[in-house]
Amino acid sequence: MVYYDLHLHSCLSPCGDELMTPNNMINMAKICGLDLISVTDHNTMRQQKACCRCARRQGIDYLCGVEMESREEVHLLAYFPPAMIDPVQQWLQSHYSGQPNSIAYFGHQRVMNEWDEIVDEEPQRLLDCLNASLKECVEAVHHFHGKAVLAHVLNRRNGVIEQLGFIPPDLAVDGIEVAHPSQLEQVRNNSPWAADLPWLCSSDAHQLTDIQERVAAISEDQAAWLKGERT
Prior knowledge:
With 231 residues, the protein is α/β, with parallel strands linked by helices. It has helices at residues 22-31, 48-58, 85-94, 103-106, 134-143, 160-164, 184-190, 220-226; strands at 2-8, 36-39, 61-62, 64-69, 75-80, 110-112, 118-121, 147-150, 175-177, 199-200, 217-218. The protein is built from eight helices and eleven strands.
């Protein structure tokens, strides 16, 4: 089995603690005994290359990711092969609102290298929704050979059920994320057509102590499928 946490926010996300640097996150994941992690910052892939390098040094498997926010204010986790980091980032930037970040109000959005050195400050306000519908976001994820997973689908602001009331039956997502497996029955009762979708249970960590320990696991085949190594 592969123990994972596939929903972490670094200090590049305005909601992420300043201690959520690439090395700190990877080291904490190792302490927690995790095999596979993903940093999924809001609407940006700019921290991904540093996280990949840190994970490789520590021997932890890494899945490149991002948490998109659609025009409907629904959060969508997306996971990609490493070769897609730059193309996906270009797509994200082309769909930004264009509003600058207010450091005084939202805090810093720091881009770091693999040694936790600050190399840039993201000027775009990353908490804004993208200029793309949820369906368009899912289509973009698949265009870049990624997997689209609806984030924290139940009882959470920006979850699809909170925002839309249900999971659209024609939405071609690859999975759903719940806060706890006990929520699955309620999700399936709300949207029975989603009953057979693969599911994940990650922390949505915004600080180091949020990163989950060895409590959620998937098979090696499932991990390979998420990484695009198997169909």
